[in-house]
Amino acid sequence: MPEAEVHGPIDYILIEFTGNRLTGRASEELVNLVERGIVQVYDVMVVGKDANGSVYWVDLAEGTGQAGGFADLAGARSGILAEDDLLEVADAMQPGTLAALIVYENTWAIPFVAAALESGGTLIGGGRIPAQDVMEVLDALESLEATT
């Protein structure tokens, strides 16, 4: 199977920022990952929820201060994310926050996936452990080790 027909795993992340604090640092790192060929961004959506719970979408093409540097990724619009996703994201958000919803492909995995498929491999499972969960478990283990 030619590598051009193979894709890496597609993931999404939803990151909530309290008090509308998008500083641009997160978007800088995302652009860095794209430039290094580690990920390909398919869609970016920034959603706000005001203190009253009203939901709004931040137009990245306008490059407003609320976009927090994600305006650099305004062209990442594959169509995977739709208005329904905005409403689903809003349900997960706290009032007075902004959230960035990012859909990306793990392009680093394409050669591995191609090699596995060429070798007759078939993906029969997969999953993701959220970063926050990993950090909490590692912190708990470190605390436990410190007391023994």
Helix/strand layout:
Elements: E1 10-18, H1 25-35, E2 40-49, E3 55-58, H2 83-92, E4 97-105, H3 110-118, H4 131-147
Antiparallel strand pairs: 1-4, 2-3, 2-4
Give an overview in words:
The protein has 148 residues and is an alpha+beta fold. It has one domain (3-121). 32% of the residues lie in helices and 22% in strands. It contains four helices and four strands; from the N terminus they run E-H-E-E-H-E-H-H. It has helices at 25-35, 83-92, 110-118, 131-147; strands at residues 10-18, 40-49, 55-58, 97-105. A hairpin with a 5-residue loop joins strand 2 (40-49) and strand 3 (55-58). The termini are far apart. The mean pLDDT is 86.
The fraction of residues in strands falls at 15-25%
Overall mean pLDDT stands at 86
Distance between the termini: 52 Å
SSE succession: EHEEHEHH
Rg (CA only): 18 Å
Question: Structural class given helices, strands, pairing?
Answer: alpha+beta
Describe the largest sheet.
4 strands, antiparallel
Q: How many structural units, i.e. domains?
A: 1
Which shape, going by the Cα principal axes?
globular
Low-confidence stretches: none
What is the number of E strands? 4
How many helices? 4
- Report helical residue fraction: 25-40%
Organism: Kribbella jiaozuonensis
InterPro entries: DUF6325
Pfam families: DUF6325
Protein name: DUF1269 domain-containing protein
